[in-house]
Amino acid sequence: MVSGSWSVIFLMNPLSSPSKAIYHNTKIRGLIIDYLLSIFVSASSFVLYWMVDRCIRVKESAMKKFYDKLIQTRHYLHQHPELSGQEFETTAFLKGYLEDLDIRILESGLKTGLVAEVGSGKPVIALRADIDALPILEQTGLPYASQNAGVMHACGHDFHQTSLLGAAELLKAMEGDLRGTVRLIFQPAEETSQGASQVLATGLLDDVSAIIGFHNMPQLKAGQLALKAGAMMAGVEKFKVEVEGVSSHAARPDLGVDTVLTLTSMIQNLQALVARTVSPFEAAVLSVTHIESGATWNVLPQSGFFEGTIRSFNPTLQQRLKEDFIRIVENTAENFGAQVRISWDHTPPVTYNDPELAELLYEHSQNLAEVLPANPSSAGEDFAFYQEKLPGVFAFIGSNGAENAPDLHHDSMVIDDEAFKVSVPYYVESALFLLQHYKQKA
After folding, report:
1. Residues 387-422 pLDDT 10s
2. Taking the CA atoms of the chain, what radius of gyration do you get in angstroms?
3. Do residues 204 and 110 touch, judged by C-beta distance below 8 A?
4. What mean pLDDT is predicted for residues 319-346?
5. What predicted TM-score, i.e. pTM, was given to this entire model?
6. CA-to-CA separations, 75 to 62, 80, 96, in angstroms, rounded
């Protein structure tokens, strides 16, 4: 059975199809009725008209209850956010929710987060949602605002994980007809870029053919989905440069090695790295965001540091910028007679959508949402670590769209719950489509 047939099956079972055309496009009722009347031109057709209309109303009522349940679930999770690596209560909640649906939870060894699955056999398609929150004091004023002071789901991971719970419920309802296995990844620690690597280390993705993920996007309206082949989010390098000079009195700089001058010269020299060595047709950014040195006004300090980030959408360019960065910093330190140490944090590479799968899902998603070509984001996403190991597709799903809507990581960021009507079908339809795709390729 191909995934396209779920729209038909939905007429019999409201939880068996995530097709938007059926469960939240009200024009479908008239289209179905007109079609049936064109075939059955008799008195009995009016009985059929009434039966179909009533059937669809019942299904719409069932789907409303389904979405109301998801909204209540998200609001609960929004009230109880937990930081990266500390998602213990969140994990317990997810485990209980899935167990109530009789969904298998796999032994993973993860401290927080979990992996579950629906279906059996090959192929295996993975759906991933992140579950951690941010150290932000919420200022939304929502009735379901965070009850954990100083911690907030300001990146919408409450929405992501609830969307996957909804998809899990729908997939479980059609489990007997699945043509393979759908693995459900509730990933911890995305904000620290550590969670994807932890999940990969479990080995539970070793047999996966492809992986699907998304991030909510406040700049897009609920009902919109953005997708493209290739780079979706930037590769991220986080750097820290520590400089050791020779301290002296401010009146006798000739007796020391000026750490402050060395630091500021490095920063000045680095500004030419993107401005004068990167093609204007490529996107890249180098930002110094933090600098410290000294403790008083009349002493040249012994040491200091600065830190920041390099981002681009081209892995080759990213590596070249890193190498040039090191060369500029080391040469500047040598020119001033200072010592320098450069350190780099483990951060995500480019989030790069598999070209073939992205094009297929771009077309397949047309019946789920208003599908737009994605504008890449210069933010980073550890979903990229999965894509280094297996084909993957990452989308942006509209979650607000209001003029001047607060962005991700803002203390007033608010998600429109109508977005569930795209996020849940995106997960389910992508899984069904890819199961069929890989079954045919086998």
Report:
1. 999 999 999 999 999 999 999 999 999 999 999 999
2. 26
3. no
4. 96
5. 0.84
6. 20, 9, 17
Q: Quick check: helix, strand or coil at residue 14?
A: coil
CA angle at 106 for the pair 208 and 116, rounded to the nearest 5°: 65
Characterize the bridge pairing of strands 181-187 and 124-130: parallel
Annotated ligand binding at 409? The verdict is: yes
- State whether residue 418 is helix, strand or coil: helix
For tokens 């911690």, name the residue: 151
Q: Which CATH architecture has domain 62-206+400-441?
A: 3-Layer(aba) Sandwich (3.40)
346 is an annotated ligand-binding site residue: no
**Ligand-binding site membership of 55 (annotated):** no
Q: Is the dihedral of CA 269, 271, 276, 282 positive or negative?
A: positive
For the chain, the domains span 62-206+400-441, 238-338
Ligand-binding annotation for 155, yes or no, is: yes
* Nearest CA-CA partner of 415 in 164, 186, 221: 221
Known binder of ligand: residue 215?
yes
CATH, domain range 238-338: 3.30.70.360
And the tokens for 112?
Answer: 């927080």
Which tokens belong to 232?
Answer: 């979706």
The two tokens of residue 124 are: 């295996």
